[in-house]
What we know:
The structure is a homotetramer.
Chain A: E1 4-5, E2 10-15, E3 21-27, H1 37-47, E4 64-66, E5 70-71, E6 74-75, E7 80-85, H2 107-114, H3 130-146, E8 150-158, E9 161-162, H4 185-200, E10 207-214, H5 228-237, E11 242-247, H6 258-261, E12 265-268, E13 271-274, E14 282-283, E15 286-287, E16 292-298, E17 308-311, E18 317-320, H7 331-353
Antiparallel strand pairs in A: 1-2, 2-3, 3-7, 4-7, 5-6, 8-9, 8-10, 10-16, 11-16, 12-13, 14-15, 17-18
Helix pairs in contact in A: 1-3, 1-7, 3-7, 5-7
Amino acid sequence: MFNSFGNIFRLTSFGESHGRGIGGVIDGFPSGIAIDESFVQSELDRRRPGQSILTTARKEPDKVEFLSGIFEGKSTGAPIGFIVWNQNQHSSDYENLKGVYRPSHADYTYTVKYGIRDHRGGGRSSARETISRVVGGALAKLALRQLGIDIKAYTSQVGGIKLEGNYTDYDLDLIETNDVRCPDPLKAKEMADLIKQVKGEGDTIGGTLTCVIKGCPIGLGQPVFGKLHAALGGAMLSINAAKAFEYGEGFHGLKMRGSEQNDVFYNNHGRIETHTNHSGGIQGGISNGEDIYFRVVFKPIATLLMEQETVNIDGVDTTLKARGRHDACVLPRAVPIVEAMAAMVILDYYLLDKMTQL
Amino acid sequence: MFNSFGNIFRLTSFGESHGRGIGGVIDGFPSGIAIDESFVQSELDRRRPGQSILTTARKEPDKVEFLSGIFEGKSTGAPIGFIVWNQNQHSSDYENLKGVYRPSHADYTYTVKYGIRDHRGGGRSSARETISRVVGGALAKLALRQLGIDIKAYTSQVGGIKLEGNYTDYDLDLIETNDVRCPDPLKAKEMADLIKQVKGEGDTIGGTLTCVIKGCPIGLGQPVFGKLHAALGGAMLSINAAKAFEYGEGFHGLKMRGSEQNDVFYNNHGRIETHTNHSGGIQGGISNGEDIYFRVVFKPIATLLMEQETVNIDGVDTTLKARGRHDACVLPRAVPIVEAMAAMVILDYYLLDKMTQL
Amino acid sequence: MFNSFGNIFRLTSFGESHGRGIGGVIDGFPSGIAIDESFVQSELDRRRPGQSILTTARKEPDKVEFLSGIFEGKSTGAPIGFIVWNQNQHSSDYENLKGVYRPSHADYTYTVKYGIRDHRGGGRSSARETISRVVGGALAKLALRQLGIDIKAYTSQVGGIKLEGNYTDYDLDLIETNDVRCPDPLKAKEMADLIKQVKGEGDTIGGTLTCVIKGCPIGLGQPVFGKLHAALGGAMLSINAAKAFEYGEGFHGLKMRGSEQNDVFYNNHGRIETHTNHSGGIQGGISNGEDIYFRVVFKPIATLLMEQETVNIDGVDTTLKARGRHDACVLPRAVPIVEAMAAMVILDYYLLDKMTQL
Amino acid sequence: MFNSFGNIFRLTSFGESHGRGIGGVIDGFPSGIAIDESFVQSELDRRRPGQSILTTARKEPDKVEFLSGIFEGKSTGAPIGFIVWNQNQHSSDYENLKGVYRPSHADYTYTVKYGIRDHRGGGRSSARETISRVVGGALAKLALRQLGIDIKAYTSQVGGIKLEGNYTDYDLDLIETNDVRCPDPLKAKEMADLIKQVKGEGDTIGGTLTCVIKGCPIGLGQPVFGKLHAALGGAMLSINAAKAFEYGEGFHGLKMRGSEQNDVFYNNHGRIETHTNHSGGIQGGISNGEDIYFRVVFKPIATLLMEQETVNIDGVDTTLKARGRHDACVLPRAVPIVEAMAAMVILDYYLLDKMTQL
């Protein structure tokens, strides 16, 4: 039951890094939505390995193939199956990892839990699984677009290099103009240089993403356990390498008193709005019509191209050094994944909200 | 469907701040567990208003009454219904709030979403709902105790006053020796003074909690959308006023490279362990047998005893000043709530893990 | 997870026959619905023991007490908690049953499954649990009434005494004019006589109920696993003592060929209808706007006031004879229960259908 | 959410009759089970069109292709994706149906519900979807085999030709010796002749299946809404053309009094058993260790090779006559489908039962 995501709109994902492919089934997608397959592919292209010098050199076309649920270009309300075939897996790169547990990877925990492990490329624990999320998210975006809802994420920090401003300080149209996906071109350059340097050392580095949702209707979110930010937080933390989530002022709010952090209401020409948006567009777990924004922290990728201590599957101390093609920083490719998860949550909660009143 | 929490172990909650009471139903609780009702009550007492000078003066005995599912002192596997009757609600304190939307509260979003609002004490959006969570968590703790799993949370920051060390630097047995629930008595005193000062000003202040789970078996967590930390994060973010969640190194890891943050394995006399625990006891979304630890950020409570601008339900600009009895800082009372949510997640995932192999 | 019923509209039930009471939580109920508590009570009165000479003499007022989710007479969208306190339980009647397994009851299977058993009145396995269903169903009916949907069930067979006609042959307004709840007064009399005779012999007897849903909109039902009749069937079979379910022609259709059983469409003054309704108002798992009708078979109640062989909890062969107050035929009191389950399914599916299109 | 089946073991299905193929994802399958792909294929072969003179002439190899979740011949605990590609669809056979609603099919209800319809071969409403069920069921059987649980279904009635005995009167090893899948060779011949005759007339005919589950452990089933027979009934009724479900004595029990229908317990050399099994192996919704048996009624297939009245999509009265290749009786091919659904329910409930006690 844990390879499914969502309540009404629901993505069920399958596939391993070095298996036949990564795919999924999207259930609960509204009927009658025009499916722009080239848009879905363009989202996958933003996640694709080998897209820039900053990412892994694994070359995968990652072409999505839809299997059902679409008729004459429109969703029919039937489940939408899809698959992206694996093509460029180099399982031999992992041959030396068959007998050892990579540090801070899932090798050890999977083995204990399942009693069996597909060691090739991390198997099911590989971030290649996020392909299914990007496809699901792209479809969700197509529906949200009809509702006037727009979602954008960007890299806001890599190691110590950080955007100091809030999202309102940047032109979000600049995000896709550089490989880091950062709306501040100068910082983007610094971040790219840092990633290249770290990569050259065989090491890895983390960072943060900021995500902004504009145009979200008032009323999305369920008030107790299904608060909108709880759903977004749970969704983001399910992405490989995510370590933290904050929304609105988040950690920064620790410096503020209630009188500073409260968002007072006013009547803006007939529409009730707030002067400030410390709440991040969500109050009492329910969207209030202001922009929703949040940040996600990603740790440095655990796969290092340097020697590390570990134990093997017999419990004997040993060392290992990864071979193969790996990212040194997950942030640039995580941008479309964060957007996809956000899009799926928002569409799911939009559909749920339709049932609040008869 | 959103007043239920958990997959197998499942709490369904009901009740409003100024209604008949707060209650719930716990389904999926294992049969044959001895139910120590005095322990459940002692957990509620830790959450109870009026327990110290630092909390709201609302006087509520908050006595739990079990309605089903227990026979001759043991759980039967049938659902456990319970209720805590409201007694000391002062609905008249809220009479002046009937017509206005309190800033950064759920008044406005509830009204838009539901088209109707129980304004008395925040109705369903009140943190008084967390009573049901503490009861659910207390029962979960009784089951976890049999498995040797122990959960402890403490206040690690109030405003700018912060415990600099990690949880391993403190004697967690000191947590309950002061009203703030902080294991550093000197910092606890500073925090208490700050809370009193802020309260005197009619203002409020936020902070962070740290939670530690010891003795968790290896293998809990579902690897993709149901990662253990995603479940914990979603659970914590569903608590009123929570704004952020981080586990393991979290935000702090931004300063570290992969080679510094990885936890290398070694054979500790036959048991595979890690020298460090930057991962926070979870790898690939699955517990690895090390301590699980995380932090939760709470914002300052939105109810201020000072005048604030807002609009009324007709959309006209106005001001309001809360009356009544309110906390100035949620942290001390949030400690048992965070523990309760953690306990429910761990028990639920423990039960789920039983199905991994035939 | 199995004491909850429904997807969006969801009843979670608790309570035992001889415990504190029977209650539940209704989640996902639309906001803004006027809650006519006297109607809910009148539905419970139809289920109440001791209502006529045909039913058990256990005297219970079965007064429902709402605990949350209603404000100024309307549903707020918050979960609706409720309880019916037990008052007239005679646990001593069951003292002699503590050590034996009653034939065709749940005593033995519960004991093996849970390792513990509340033997008093059947504990959780008692049909007294259906109180919670009647309350849930009564609320669902209040919502359905606004949609013009009407649900009526009646006793259509007791032992060998059977209504030969279809529901269209009877005046359903006569159902409540007799204790058996049968729209044919002559047959009702025969059925009542039979029940009394069987009761006098210390024996029990089964029968069938027919249920009709009028005014159901076109489009309810999910086409694959969630077909509307599959949901109705699963719901009915979850009622104590139910043994079979058929809808439309059901078993009778075995005598017909496709050319006889198909319902051909025609244009009835602008509305697409079918001349016949062998399909029972559901095609491809989705309501088609015609009347929905189905039948449920109930077995004779297992509790007999005569001596039966069995084994005791030590596995030793023995005999038992029930004491206490028991129904000889479940049918008359099952009518409101069947209606309640149907109402909950239809409201749930109505809400689900709102999400089909954006 | 309605293209998924099961709680823990969960099949999510996708695909249309004339789309790319029929596939699915099986989640929650225990790890470490040897996957005998040839067994899965042999189950599909039992469902395959064109397997005998009694079935549709559509020629489909229906070869299953596994996409994930299997490593070195064993299940890994990761979701198992699979697909059966469509090859022999003749969409042109349906061109004349594009504009009309076939009687007693889902054409009309789908159109109203979704606002769009894939008319080719019935689209999603086609019984070709049951391929995914057979694959899911075959995997479930592989797991159940390890537990000693065996499931067998057979055709027990076609039109008026009926097996009068109970399942214990037949040698179930004879089921697969004839095209009808009936353990009584003489009756099988009669049934086959009847099907051929009806087919020759362009008409169709219904019947019943009986299914028997042997070796089911005591304790499966959840006592209130998740009774084991309610789950089985809901599962069976979700199969295309199913109209009724009965278990144990079912309808036949109407002729019996409680004293005749009760199954008294006795100690059979240390094992508690019942002399009779009117209960069908389930008491209080929980398996009691006796054989589980039930019957499912299937209506005549709605597609007739004769002219029928109907309306077109503009609501105008018209006639239609199906072309193409169709079964005249669903029973022979429904046998593996019923077994598959039963296997999935039993495995799911087996896994659920593991959580009853800590």
